[in-house]
Amino acid sequence: MLVNTKDVLKEAQRKSYAVAAFNVFNLETVQAAVRVAEHEHQPVIIALGERYFPTVDVEGFAAMVRALASKASVPVSLHLDHAYEKESIVRAIENGFTSVMYDGSKYELNENILRTKEIVDLAHQAGVSVEAEIGSLARGAFSDEEEGDGTLTDPQSAKEFVAATGVDFLAAAIGTVHGMYQGEPNINLPLLEKIRDVVDIPLVLHGGSGTPDEMIRQTIKRGICKINVNTEVSMAAVSYLQNQSDNKSMPHLSSIMSDMQASMEPVMTKFVKLFAY
Ligand code: 13P
Q1: Is residue 205 within 8 Å of residue 174, measured between CB atoms?
Q2: Distance 251 CA to ligand 1 centre (A)
Q3: How far is the CA of 230 from the centre of ligand 1 (A)?
Q4: Any atom of ligand 1 within 6 Å of the Cβ of 179
Q5: Which of 81, 154, 200, 246 is labelled catalytic?
Q6: What is the pLDDT of residues 173-217, one digit of tens each?
Q7: Is 213 labeled as catalytic in the residue annotation?
Q8: Confidence at residue 146, expressed as pLDDT on a 0 to 100 scale
Q9: 141 and which of 97, 180, 225, 236 could share a cystine (Cβ 3.0–4.6 Å)?
């Protein structure tokens, strides 16, 4: 069933686990995410980034996710990830997304507050929940996200931001990166505790890929309720396709797509199991 992301995250916050938000772009990635969630009896967040709007038909994509969600045996929510333009937010709301992320992290605090508040007002009128970000993530290897400067979240700014905007969940930058780490991850758990102490809405961790399992567990213990995963799933599918390119026979595209989907599912399962801990 299609649900509001906020409801899924409130439940996760209450029971101290995290929900996987998988970045998806096509039928196979969505089917893999829903299948894994159903198999593990966990809710799942289907996340489409604004950066894919030029290549993914948003209306068709949203209709497909709504259809798959309506017959899923677990709660499924449809989320707009990293949107920088109000126009994209409006388009997502019109197409039944149940949450949107407005990313104003490149603006200074007051400007970010003003812009985010405007989005919160229009999304809440439509019953859609809103994620925002304070601080930003650097980009590691193989990521498809924008480069951020890696500024960590300041707890007092986070408190002020949440109070002034009324966002429903907040992405905290605590040292994870988008993509795979180049060198040792340096994740600031004491900072997460400080943010948790002053912010009572669900907290979101971007940059799930490559983050050590124990570190993930520690962040969930300290209030992370949603973890975004993109790169590792993409790497599994691309590795499968690269191996296929050595195959001199001519398999049918339909079997390649179905095997590609199967190649993503173990990676997604690993994350869903870890987050449900
Ligand atoms: P990874 O690519 O590191 O999994 O991060 C995804 C993400 O945070 C998308 O918003």
Answers
A1: yes
A2: 32
A3: 5
A4: yes
A5: 81
A6: 999 999 999 999 999 999 999 999 999 999 999 999 999 999 999
A7: no
A8: 83
A9: 180
